[in-house]
Amino acid sequence: MSRTLYDKLVDAHKVCDLPDGDMLVYVDFHIMNEYTSPQAFSGLDQKGLSVWRPEAHLSVVDHVNATRQRDPHDAASKLLIDNLEANCKKHNIAFYGLGDRRQGIEHVVVPEQGLVAPGMLIACGDSHTTTYGAFGALGFGIGTSEVEHVLATQTLRYKRLKTMLVKIDGDIAPGVTAKDIIMKVVQVVGAGGANGYAVEFSGSAIRAQEMSGRMTICNMAVELGGRAALIGADQKALETIKGRAHSGTLDFGGLAWNSDAGAEYDTMFEIDAAEIAPLVSWGTSPDQSVPVDSLVPAETEGMTPKAREALNRALNYMDLRAGQAITDIEIDSAFIGSCTNSRIEDLRAAASILQGKKVAGSVNAIVVPGSTYTRLQAEAEGIDRVFIEAGFDWRPESGCSMCLAMNDDIALDGERIASSTNRNFEGRQGRGARTHLMNPEMVAAAAIHGRIADVREFLSEGAE
């Protein structure tokens, strides 16, 4: 019988069925950060348990650390980081801490170290673990009690998901990126439309994406509500993990990890890539987005009371008015970073827009490379000079930074941000902060103009 990639991955990792209908699955690799792991280690200590397979775990500092300087700016952050280091030393787990050339945002670090391969099952106490689906691996976020369980047993209780196929065919237009593709999918499917599903992406527009773009798509699939995101393995995926520090140590079958022809899914969506434009979120959910050259939406006839309430609440929080041109929205800050868009490819793309230009005087612009490795590569290519000369603050340390209000990069109440991050709910980047999600090139364009801008204008300038 034809099977989906998701079912193949689950079946390959199933240890046994459980009496309540769930199953026990084996975890090939587990990643931790300083924020979601302390209680798990405490639980091990209280039960007198040890870590069963230390070599199958990795700890990375990324959520609470400062990026302006190496040392955390407050005692609470330092305590979390020190505790993680101590626990890793105690249990002989690899630790990429501050000052380590391998340190950075966990979902940037793992692929660039060659620690992901098609066919793997990867778990992490962070919802954006779906990123690894770009390689034909099953990645998903877990809670603190589950972190403890996988440390002790290398297994997890798991409930099989329904399957969803999102097929995107056609050529994407200039100025459209992987970020726009996934924001379009969130628009079409809905912010919670994939609850209970594993989402597989296919089609010519997906295959045309470089691995950095595929990672962006799988990363933000969690904003659909999906707990897993997948793209079948191909030669491009295999080539990307060659020549890395751990390349060759992980082999689970390579190109075998694809859905069979004729595999059936519980639900399907088809999207024409040619209809996707550079998108900007106007509201407080990733599905509240529109093309950059359009208007802030207004109430429409037939809109349900719930939808009308959500629209008006978002407009009120974002301090926008219906019918306002998106390109008339002025910004206070521009941020390029996060596990969604801080890879070397993202930095190169944004730098191509900034070359020879200056950030508007009213804008506080920040760029945080996703890892130390990425930062050093960017500096070797001279990308840092492009950002600095344009007026961006080029951060010397890597971390989640302004993606979430969990470190010293916290937006002020009412501050409006053009952001390459993945979430825009109320207070995500700081209490009262107003976040507009967009691709990195669009963030660069907004920083130059001091307002949301259509990046295609910059592309046409370069063509003249």
TrEMBL record:
InterPro entries: 3-IsopropMal_deHydase_lsu (IPR004430), Acnase/IPM_dHydase_lsu_aba_1/3 (IPR015931), Acoase/IPM_deHydtase_lsu_aba (IPR001030), Aconitase_4Fe-4S_BS (IPR018136), Aconitase_4Fe-4S_dom (IPR036008), IPM_dehydratase_rel_enz (IPR050067), IPMI_cat (IPR033941). Its EC number is 4.2.1.33. It is an enzyme of class 4 (lyase). One of its GO terms (biological process) is L-leucine biosynthetic process. It comes from the Bacteria. It holds the Pfam family Aconitase. Pathway: Amino-acid biosynthesis; L-leucine biosynthesis; L-leucine from 3-methyl-2-oxobutanoate: step 2/4. Residues 7-450 form the Aconitase/3-isopropylmalate dehydratase large subunit alpha/beta/alpha domain. Its cofactor is [4Fe-4S] cluster. The keyword Iron-sulfur applies. Heterodimer of LeuC and LeuD. Belongs to the aconitase/IPM isomerase family. This is 3-isopropylmalate dehydratase. It comes from Ruegeria halocynthiae.
